[in-house]
Design a protein that fits this description.
Three copies of one chain form a homotrimer. The longest helix of chain A is centred in the C-terminal third of the chain and has 17 residues. Chain A is α/β, with parallel strands linked by helices. In chain A, the strands form six sheets. In chain A, strands 8-11-14-17-20-25-28-31-34-37-39-40 form a twelve-stranded mixed β-sheet, covered by helices on one side. In chain A, strands 9-12-15-18-21-26-29-32-35-38 form a ten-stranded parallel β-sheet, with no helix packed on it. The first copy, chain A, starts with a strand and ends with a helix. Chain A is built from four helices and 40 strands. In chain A, strand 22 and strand 23 form a beta hairpin. Chain A has two domains: 91 residues, MurE/MurF, N-terminal domain (Udp-n-acetylmuramoylalanyl-d-glutamate--2,6- Diaminopimelate Ligase, Chain: A, domain 1, 3-Layer(aba) Sandwich); 216 residues, 3 Solenoid (UDP N-Acetylglucosamine Acyltransferase, domain 1). The radius of gyration of chain A is 26 Å and the shape is flat. Chain A is 15% helix and 30% strand. Chains in contact: A-B, A-C, B-C. At the B-C interface, strand 23, helix 3 and helix 4 of B face helix 2, helix 3 and helix 4 of C.
């Protein structure tokens, strides 16, 4: 498929600067642009590439000011990043989606399944499962007893959902993620052994949640582990039993939230963050990658770093001195010596 | 099902305080108690909730002293946490367990399988596998050539067990975990390339071990990677080739043990801990979350923190000063200035 | 099978010292040697074991000098580690490899598959897939639409490959790894919600790459996430969208590379390392375990540690002072007191 710069500008409510008839048939990053490709400039770090790119069309923000001549046609829009997102989504919608029930799947006779659904081969849908409309269940997915799933969800290959989990509408779960495994609960038994605490709760995932690949969300001991609407978790996150994550919170890869922690809404965590058990984190908290949080964060919109985490600017100042400790200690020794001499 | 406070007290060898005929039909956390629910109080952090809870019955320790009136019936027991564990287990036992061999599974004709076993659809049992009695093999599990498995084990959906692994009795492995993948062994080859070292050892898992979801335990290069009896590993742990973990050691989520490390018994590690290669850790060692251990820990029952990890109290003291380094350096500058003035 | 010391020496171009007719039929680690086993000594840390081992034959480097009598026959070779690698590989080659197409697999009629291939039960090969010769596809593997795979690859049970991924020759991917899941890309939408950015790029894996178990490599937003030839990634690594990893780079377990980071060739990273987004790491960089890198590393062959990471020797010096901060602050207080007294 081919589009002209003008056609795309109309779609995005933007304005062409340069050749309105420039034709594009693919996307590229600005640093890899070539004839026929459309790219975008949003991150100022990449501005230099716009003067060299071979791309035919570049989306830019309305306030972009060129410092040199540009070969490509520009399309000025309010928000170049959002505009490219719209175009990518349109492109993505045009790819074939699988449909129908493949023969080598297993669907328990008691399961209730909506309209326009795909169930791939080797997918397993257990007893008393309820699934809404327009749901894609890729090969090798397992959906345990009594799970309920809303409309428009996508379960990528090999996702495993344990019994009693409840999932809302418009959720996407990537390959290999495990929802509802037992929480890590053991009681010491007299001597040194540990005895398993049966985990009889479940997991609730609200609407518009996306979970990356190989994420684990454990079931609650009692009650529910809850992922509120709009939450986005990157790959390999671990969410322990009885955790609650507030609306629209976003967590980068490989972070771990210990049992019964309660994360506010609109939080943003970097990768490899660790949150201790029974910890409360206020709305809007931002945590730098690899931070560790063993205590409650009660002030909203805090920005923290370190393990244990504290104010990010204070951390950076302290870390400059840490790197410099060898010199600091020498200055101290020097003072001690001088004082002794006096 | 419904039970009275008195019936439950008799089961737990406890004593009712309040209405002996109070009826419960479900469990809840104390902060979410409602009419008809049974909850427990073990962690003092939650004591305040007992005066407000709507739960009908609360299990408390014998030595609990109420500071205000309590609406719920109490059942006094020696250990409220253990007692709730017993009740949860009874409840859990009452749920249906799957049984029989589902048609869409694959069982090699040479495999020897015990009594009262479940093999779900899309599970694969390879050549010369030996499986004991009362084992649950959920859909999508893979069990490679020559694996042996004891009695009463549970393999949740999608667990993968490579060839030659040996697993004892009463083990539970959660979804997606991978046992016996090749250890990470490569030899530099003249220039810059690496050549794979074939990994011909195996994994041995003793009795009463529980592994969370998405755990990896690599096979030994030669010999065995060994998980001793009673070990409990949380989700997303990584156990490298030739590691040995001692009896009843417990490790929280996302920790990683490098090759040939040897962990003592009765250790407790927090989440996201890292242990270096060829490291020995003494019995009873406790590691705070995110600790890194590049050297042997020879003293038993050490409690360590940091990366590299050292005594936890010393770490906390040092960290207070670290947070304060900006001020400390100013004090140093101040002294330098004063001394210069003199 | 049995071999004499002499036969093995000839195979390795080595020289027997002791009984040329000593017979071995298995491998062992030197500390676990027993009659009939062959072991090797490469790491000097294990030298003491050679005087006690019950092994029948030990491979040693040509320059090894015995300090005491040794019971075992020695085979002197140029590089004992490489020699054992050769023997392990020969041993490994002798084990049966599965072959043929198992009936319970799914292969789309449009897929093009090479010679001498194994496709296990419950493996799924989608539309327009192209696979070379001598490829092993174990049970439960999923290969999405339009994936291309070269010769001599191995996909262990449960690997999931999303659409459009390209994989070269001689690659090994261990169980449960997920290649090509969506990159973690969301745009804030007016208020607090996030809108998914469609991820239309792919993953390219070049020749001779080995990925451990439960690794994730995300597809690019646009363009490709690229793993160059000879790269080796240990278990549970996370490689985000649009990352590029240079040739022969080796990364230990549980490390995470954020979006659009560009890693040089011949790098070595320890476990649990984190690399920030849009970061460039020069060729030959070595990172200590648990390091965090939020800034570009431009100098080749740097050896770094810490979070943020800096020169490893400087880190160790600073850390000694960090552990000692309590004492340093006391010395400072002491000086302040003395100066006041004067």
């Amino acid at each position: 498929m081919e589009f002209t710069a003008q056609q795309i500008a109309e779609l995005l409510n933007g304005k062409v600067e340069g050749d309105k008839n420039a034709i594009v048939n693919t996307f590229s990053k600005i640093e890899e642009g070539k004839a026929g490709s459309l790219c975008f400039l949003a991150n100022p770090k990449y501005t230099n590439y716009i003067y060299e790119t071979e791309a035919s069309v570049v989306l830019v923000n309305n306030d972009f000011e060129a410092q040199k001549p540009i070969k490509a046609s520009l399309i000025r829009v309010e928000d170049a990043y959002k505009s490219i997102a719209i175009l990518l989504d349109i492109y993505n919608q045009m790819t074939d989606k699988p449909k129908g029930i493949e023969k080598q799947s297993f669907i328990h006779k008691s399961a209730v399944i909506g309209k326009n659904i795909y169930v791939g081969a080797f997918a397993y849908i257990a007893k008393d499962v309820k699934i809404g409309n327009n749901v894609l269940i890729y090969p090798g997915v397992y959906i345990g007893n009594n799970v309920t799933i809303g409309d428009n969800c996508v379960f990528h290959p090999g996702v495993k959902i344990y019994h009693n989990t409840k999932i809302g509408n418009n959720c996407i779960i990537h390959s290999g993620s495990v929802i509802g495994a037992d929480g890590f609960g053991f009681a010491p038994n007299n001597g040194e052994e540990f005895v398993k605490i049966a985990q009889i709760g479940n997991v609730i995932i609200e609407d518009n949640v996306e979970l990356g690949a190989l994420v684990t969300v454990d079931r609650a001991t009692m009650g529910s582990t809850i992922i509120r609407k709009g939450v986005k978790l990157d790959n390999q996150n671990h969410i322990a039993h009885n955790v609650e994550i507030g609306e629209n919170t976003v967590i980068a890869a490989q972070s771990g939230l210990a049992g019964t922690s309660k994360i506010g809404k609109n939080c943003m965590f970097g990768g490899q963050v660790g949150i201790g058990p029974h910890i409360t984190i206020a709305n809007g908290t931002k945590l730098s990658a690899q931070s560790g949080v063993p205590n409650n964060v009660l002030k909203e919109d805090s920005i923290l770093m370190g393990a244990p985490a504290f104010d990010i600017r204070a951390y950076h100042r302290a870390y400059v001195h840490f790197k410099n400790l060898d010199d600091i200690v020498k200055r101290l020794e020097n003072l001690e010596k001088k004082l002794k001499e006096k």
